[in-house]
Design goal:
alpha/beta; 5-stranded parallel beta sheet; globular; about 300 residues; about 35% helix
Protein backbone atom coordinates (compact mmCIF):
# COMPACT_ATOMS: atom_id res chain seq x y z
CA UNK A 1 0.00 0.00 0.00
CA UNK A 2 1.57 3.28 -1.12
CA UNK A 3 -0.59 5.71 0.84
CA UNK A 4 -3.95 6.46 2.47
CA UNK A 5 -6.82 5.04 0.48
CA UNK A 6 -4.57 3.00 -1.80
CA UNK A 7 -6.14 -0.20 -3.14
CA UNK A 8 -4.84 -3.69 -2.52
CA UNK A 9 -6.84 -5.13 -5.41
CA UNK A 10 -3.65 -6.15 -7.22
CA UNK A 11 -2.93 -8.53 -4.35
CA UNK A 12 -6.22 -10.39 -4.62
CA UNK A 13 -5.85 -14.03 -5.65
CA UNK A 14 -8.56 -13.44 -8.25
CA UNK A 15 -6.23 -10.95 -9.95
CA UNK A 16 -2.94 -12.75 -9.41
CA UNK A 17 -4.06 -16.10 -10.79
CA UNK A 18 -6.84 -15.21 -13.20
CA UNK A 19 -6.44 -16.30 -16.82
CA UNK A 20 -9.75 -14.87 -17.94
CA UNK A 21 -9.71 -13.74 -21.54
CA UNK A 22 -6.37 -15.38 -22.32
CA UNK A 23 -5.90 -17.66 -25.32
CA UNK A 24 -4.06 -20.85 -24.36
CA UNK A 25 -2.80 -23.85 -26.31
CA UNK A 26 -1.97 -27.15 -24.60
CA UNK A 27 -0.35 -29.97 -26.54
CA UNK A 28 -1.30 -33.50 -25.51
CA UNK A 29 -4.08 -32.05 -23.40
CA UNK A 30 -6.65 -34.83 -23.66
CA UNK A 31 -5.28 -37.07 -20.89
CA UNK A 32 -3.05 -37.08 -17.82
CA UNK A 33 -1.03 -33.98 -16.97
CA UNK A 34 -2.23 -32.22 -20.12
CA UNK A 35 -5.85 -32.75 -19.11
CA UNK A 36 -5.12 -31.36 -15.65
CA UNK A 37 -3.66 -28.22 -17.25
CA UNK A 38 -6.49 -27.96 -19.76
CA UNK A 39 -9.13 -28.20 -17.06
CA UNK A 40 -7.38 -25.54 -14.99
CA UNK A 41 -7.18 -23.18 -17.97
CA UNK A 42 -10.60 -24.06 -19.39
CA UNK A 43 -12.15 -21.14 -17.57
CA UNK A 44 -10.51 -19.01 -20.24
CA UNK A 45 -9.73 -21.16 -23.27
CA UNK A 46 -7.41 -24.13 -23.58
CA UNK A 47 -7.89 -26.13 -26.77
CA UNK A 48 -7.96 -29.87 -27.30
CA UNK A 49 -10.20 -32.50 -28.78
CA UNK A 50 -12.00 -35.10 -26.62
CA UNK A 51 -11.72 -32.82 -23.62
CA UNK A 52 -14.19 -30.38 -25.18
CA UNK A 53 -16.95 -32.94 -24.80
CA UNK A 54 -16.08 -34.16 -21.30
CA UNK A 55 -15.05 -31.07 -19.38
CA UNK A 56 -16.97 -28.00 -20.49
CA UNK A 57 -16.23 -25.12 -18.07
CA UNK A 58 -19.04 -24.82 -15.51
CA UNK A 59 -18.51 -21.07 -15.10
CA UNK A 60 -19.44 -20.32 -18.70
CA UNK A 61 -16.45 -17.98 -19.04
CA UNK A 62 -14.22 -20.32 -20.99
CA UNK A 63 -14.13 -22.32 -24.16
CA UNK A 64 -12.27 -25.47 -25.15
CA UNK A 65 -11.70 -25.77 -28.89
CA UNK A 66 -10.53 -28.99 -30.56
CA UNK A 67 -7.35 -28.52 -32.60
CA UNK A 68 -5.79 -31.82 -33.73
CA UNK A 69 -2.17 -31.80 -34.82
CA UNK A 70 1.19 -33.56 -34.75
CA UNK A 71 4.06 -31.80 -32.97
CA UNK A 72 6.61 -34.56 -33.44
CA UNK A 73 8.22 -32.91 -36.47
CA UNK A 74 8.78 -29.46 -37.95
CA UNK A 75 6.14 -29.78 -40.66
CA UNK A 76 3.53 -30.81 -38.10
CA UNK A 77 4.37 -27.83 -35.87
CA UNK A 78 4.12 -25.46 -38.82
CA UNK A 79 0.75 -26.95 -39.84
CA UNK A 80 -0.57 -26.68 -36.28
CA UNK A 81 0.54 -23.04 -36.15
CA UNK A 82 -1.24 -22.30 -39.42
CA UNK A 83 -4.44 -23.97 -38.18
CA UNK A 84 -4.22 -22.06 -34.91
CA UNK A 85 -3.65 -18.75 -36.72
CA UNK A 86 -6.83 -19.32 -38.70
CA UNK A 87 -8.75 -19.33 -35.39
CA UNK A 88 -6.82 -16.86 -33.23
CA UNK A 89 -4.73 -13.75 -33.89
CA UNK A 90 -2.72 -13.96 -30.68
CA UNK A 91 -1.56 -16.48 -28.07
CA UNK A 92 -0.94 -15.81 -24.39
CA UNK A 93 0.20 -19.22 -23.17
CA UNK A 94 1.73 -22.22 -24.91
CA UNK A 95 1.94 -25.37 -22.79
CA UNK A 96 4.30 -27.91 -24.35
CA UNK A 97 3.00 -31.02 -22.66
CA UNK A 98 3.01 -33.79 -25.28
CA UNK A 99 5.46 -36.53 -24.36
CA UNK A 100 6.15 -40.24 -24.59
CA UNK A 101 7.83 -42.97 -22.51
CA UNK A 102 8.32 -46.02 -24.71
CA UNK A 103 11.08 -47.93 -22.90
CA UNK A 104 8.86 -50.29 -20.91
CA UNK A 105 10.90 -53.40 -21.87
CA UNK A 106 14.04 -51.72 -20.52
CA UNK A 107 12.70 -51.01 -17.05
CA UNK A 108 14.86 -52.67 -14.43
CA UNK A 109 11.78 -54.06 -12.69
CA UNK A 110 10.89 -56.02 -15.83
CA UNK A 111 14.16 -57.98 -15.82
CA UNK A 112 14.56 -60.20 -12.78
CA UNK A 113 17.84 -61.63 -14.09
CA UNK A 114 19.58 -58.24 -14.13
CA UNK A 115 22.61 -58.36 -11.82
CA UNK A 116 23.77 -54.86 -10.87
CA UNK A 117 27.09 -56.25 -9.64
CA UNK A 118 27.89 -57.60 -13.11
CA UNK A 119 29.09 -55.31 -15.86
CA UNK A 120 28.22 -58.02 -18.38
CA UNK A 121 24.65 -58.27 -17.10
CA UNK A 122 24.13 -54.50 -17.17
CA UNK A 123 25.67 -54.28 -20.65
CA UNK A 124 23.33 -56.91 -22.05
CA UNK A 125 20.33 -55.18 -20.52
CA UNK A 126 21.24 -51.69 -21.75
CA UNK A 127 21.97 -52.94 -25.26
CA UNK A 128 18.34 -53.97 -25.64
CA UNK A 129 17.80 -50.28 -26.46
CA UNK A 130 17.73 -49.25 -30.09
CA UNK A 131 18.47 -46.04 -31.99
CA UNK A 132 14.87 -45.62 -33.12
CA UNK A 133 13.59 -45.51 -29.54
CA UNK A 134 16.13 -42.87 -28.55
CA UNK A 135 15.40 -40.73 -31.61
CA UNK A 136 11.62 -40.97 -31.24
CA UNK A 137 11.82 -40.13 -27.54
CA UNK A 138 13.95 -37.05 -28.16
CA UNK A 139 11.83 -36.08 -31.16
CA UNK A 140 8.65 -35.92 -29.08
CA UNK A 141 9.96 -34.89 -25.65
CA UNK A 142 12.57 -32.31 -26.68
CA UNK A 143 12.56 -31.40 -30.35
CA UNK A 144 8.79 -30.80 -30.33
CA UNK A 145 9.22 -28.14 -27.63
CA UNK A 146 11.86 -26.37 -29.72
CA UNK A 147 9.94 -26.51 -33.00
CA UNK A 148 6.48 -25.55 -31.76
CA UNK A 149 7.85 -22.76 -29.56
CA UNK A 150 9.75 -21.34 -32.52
CA UNK A 151 6.64 -21.50 -34.70
CA UNK A 152 4.41 -19.82 -32.11
CA UNK A 153 6.73 -16.93 -31.16
CA UNK A 154 5.07 -14.29 -33.41
CA UNK A 155 1.64 -15.18 -31.98
CA UNK A 156 2.98 -15.05 -28.43
CA UNK A 157 4.48 -11.63 -29.16
CA UNK A 158 1.05 -10.43 -30.27
CA UNK A 159 -0.36 -11.76 -27.03
CA UNK A 160 1.83 -9.28 -25.18
CA UNK A 161 -0.10 -6.45 -26.81
CA UNK A 162 -3.53 -7.40 -25.46
CA UNK A 163 -3.09 -7.40 -21.66
CA UNK A 164 -1.53 -4.49 -19.82
CA UNK A 165 1.09 -5.55 -17.29
CA UNK A 166 1.18 -9.10 -18.64
CA UNK A 167 3.75 -10.99 -20.70
CA UNK A 168 3.00 -14.09 -22.77
CA UNK A 169 4.72 -17.29 -21.78
CA UNK A 170 5.71 -20.81 -22.69
CA UNK A 171 5.43 -23.53 -20.06
CA UNK A 172 7.23 -26.79 -20.78
CA UNK A 173 5.95 -29.83 -18.90
CA UNK A 174 9.10 -31.78 -18.13
CA UNK A 175 9.84 -34.31 -15.39
CA UNK A 176 11.91 -34.73 -12.27
CA UNK A 177 13.36 -37.69 -14.16
CA UNK A 178 15.50 -35.04 -15.83
CA UNK A 179 16.72 -33.84 -12.42
CA UNK A 180 17.08 -37.08 -10.48
CA UNK A 181 20.42 -38.88 -10.49
CA UNK A 182 18.66 -42.25 -10.75
CA UNK A 183 17.92 -43.43 -14.33
CA UNK A 184 14.10 -43.35 -14.17
CA UNK A 185 13.89 -47.08 -13.40
CA UNK A 186 15.93 -47.86 -16.50
CA UNK A 187 14.29 -45.43 -18.93
CA UNK A 188 17.52 -43.70 -19.91
CA UNK A 189 16.23 -42.09 -23.12
CA UNK A 190 13.21 -40.68 -21.30
CA UNK A 191 15.27 -39.26 -18.44
CA UNK A 192 17.85 -37.79 -20.82
CA UNK A 193 15.16 -36.23 -23.02
CA UNK A 194 13.55 -34.58 -20.00
CA UNK A 195 16.90 -33.26 -18.79
CA UNK A 196 17.41 -31.83 -22.27
CA UNK A 197 13.94 -30.26 -22.15
CA UNK A 198 14.80 -28.55 -18.86
CA UNK A 199 18.02 -27.19 -20.35
CA UNK A 200 16.10 -26.12 -23.47
CA UNK A 201 13.71 -24.20 -21.21
CA UNK A 202 16.62 -22.17 -19.85
CA UNK A 203 18.14 -21.68 -23.33
CA UNK A 204 14.86 -20.38 -24.78
CA UNK A 205 14.19 -18.16 -21.76
CA UNK A 206 17.60 -16.52 -22.18
CA UNK A 207 17.17 -16.12 -25.94
CA UNK A 208 13.73 -14.50 -25.64
CA UNK A 209 14.39 -11.98 -22.87
CA UNK A 210 14.14 -8.95 -25.17
CA UNK A 211 10.86 -10.19 -26.68
CA UNK A 212 9.22 -10.22 -23.22
CA UNK A 213 8.11 -13.79 -23.82
CA UNK A 214 8.79 -15.87 -20.71
CA UNK A 215 9.73 -19.57 -20.66
CA UNK A 216 9.36 -21.74 -17.57
CA UNK A 217 9.03 -25.44 -16.80
CA UNK A 218 6.94 -27.60 -14.53
CA UNK A 219 8.94 -30.75 -13.74
CA UNK A 220 6.28 -33.17 -12.61
CA UNK A 221 6.88 -36.13 -10.36
CA UNK A 222 7.17 -39.24 -12.49
CA UNK A 223 9.00 -42.53 -12.52
CA UNK A 224 8.17 -44.95 -9.70
CA UNK A 225 4.66 -45.80 -8.51
CA UNK A 226 5.48 -44.05 -5.25
CA UNK A 227 6.14 -40.64 -6.74
CA UNK A 228 3.94 -39.86 -9.73
CA UNK A 229 0.97 -37.93 -11.01
CA UNK A 230 -1.27 -40.71 -12.36
CA UNK A 231 -1.47 -40.37 -16.14
CA UNK A 232 -2.03 -42.46 -19.21
CA UNK A 233 1.78 -42.66 -19.58
CA UNK A 234 2.35 -44.10 -16.12
CA UNK A 235 -0.87 -46.07 -15.60
CA UNK A 236 -0.78 -47.33 -19.21
CA UNK A 237 -4.50 -46.61 -19.60
CA UNK A 238 -7.20 -44.06 -18.89
CA UNK A 239 -10.86 -44.40 -17.98
CA UNK A 240 -13.83 -43.12 -19.97
CA UNK A 241 -13.35 -39.71 -18.34
CA UNK A 242 -9.74 -39.63 -19.60
CA UNK A 243 -8.47 -39.94 -16.01
CA UNK A 244 -5.90 -42.49 -14.86
CA UNK A 245 -5.51 -44.06 -11.45
CA UNK A 246 -2.68 -45.82 -9.61
CA UNK A 247 -4.04 -47.02 -6.25
CA UNK A 248 -0.60 -47.45 -4.64
CA UNK A 249 0.89 -44.20 -5.96
CA UNK A 250 2.37 -41.65 -3.62
CA UNK A 251 2.76 -43.77 -0.50
CA UNK A 252 6.56 -43.41 -0.54
CA UNK A 253 6.48 -39.61 -0.79
CA UNK A 254 6.80 -37.19 2.13
CA UNK A 255 3.37 -35.95 0.99
CA UNK A 256 2.00 -39.46 1.49
CA UNK A 257 -0.15 -39.29 -1.64
CA UNK A 258 0.13 -38.87 -5.42
CA UNK A 259 -0.30 -35.58 -7.21
CA UNK A 260 -3.87 -34.39 -7.70
CA UNK A 261 -5.58 -32.25 -10.30
CA UNK A 262 -5.51 -29.25 -7.97
CA UNK A 263 -1.73 -29.57 -7.47
CA UNK A 264 -1.12 -29.26 -11.19
CA UNK A 265 -3.80 -26.57 -11.54
CA UNK A 266 -2.08 -24.44 -8.89
CA UNK A 267 1.26 -24.71 -10.74
CA UNK A 268 -0.03 -23.85 -14.21
CA UNK A 269 -2.28 -21.03 -12.99
CA UNK A 270 0.60 -19.54 -11.03
CA UNK A 271 2.85 -19.37 -14.10
CA UNK A 272 0.04 -18.41 -16.48
CA UNK A 273 -1.48 -15.58 -14.45
CA UNK A 274 -0.18 -12.14 -13.57
CA UNK A 275 1.24 -13.57 -10.35
CA UNK A 276 3.87 -15.39 -12.39
CA UNK A 277 5.11 -12.59 -14.65
CA UNK A 278 8.29 -12.18 -12.56
CA UNK A 279 9.26 -15.80 -13.23
CA UNK A 280 11.39 -16.57 -16.25
CA UNK A 281 13.67 -19.58 -16.77
CA UNK A 282 12.35 -21.16 -13.57
CA UNK A 283 11.75 -24.85 -12.93
CA UNK A 284 8.83 -25.70 -10.63
CA UNK A 285 8.84 -29.16 -9.05
CA UNK A 286 5.41 -30.15 -7.70
CA UNK A 287 6.72 -33.55 -6.62
CA UNK A 288 5.36 -34.18 -3.13
CA UNK A 289 8.92 -34.05 -1.79
CA UNK A 290 10.43 -36.67 -4.13
CA UNK A 291 13.55 -34.60 -4.78
CA UNK A 292 14.04 -34.27 -1.02
CA UNK A 293 14.30 -38.00 -0.44
CA UNK A 294 16.04 -39.11 -3.65
CA UNK A 295 19.41 -38.02 -5.12
CA UNK A 296 18.82 -35.08 -7.44
CA UNK A 297 20.42 -31.92 -8.76
CA UNK A 298 17.90 -29.70 -7.00
Amino acid sequence: MSGPGASNDALLASNLFSVEGMVCLVTGGATGIGLMCTQALATNGAKLEKVAQLYKPSSGKGQIIPLPGDVSDKAGCQKLTQDFSAKESALHLLVNNAGIAIEEPLKFSNNESLDFSSAESISQHLLQADTETWLKTYQTNTQAIYMLSACMLPLLAKGNETFRGYTSSIVNITSISGIMKTPSSGQFAYAASKAAAIQLTRNLANTLTKTKIRVNSIAVSAGKQTDIFPSEMTAKESADNNKSELPEAGKGLPAGRPGKDEDMAASILFLAGRGGVFYNGSILTPDGGATLTNPSSM
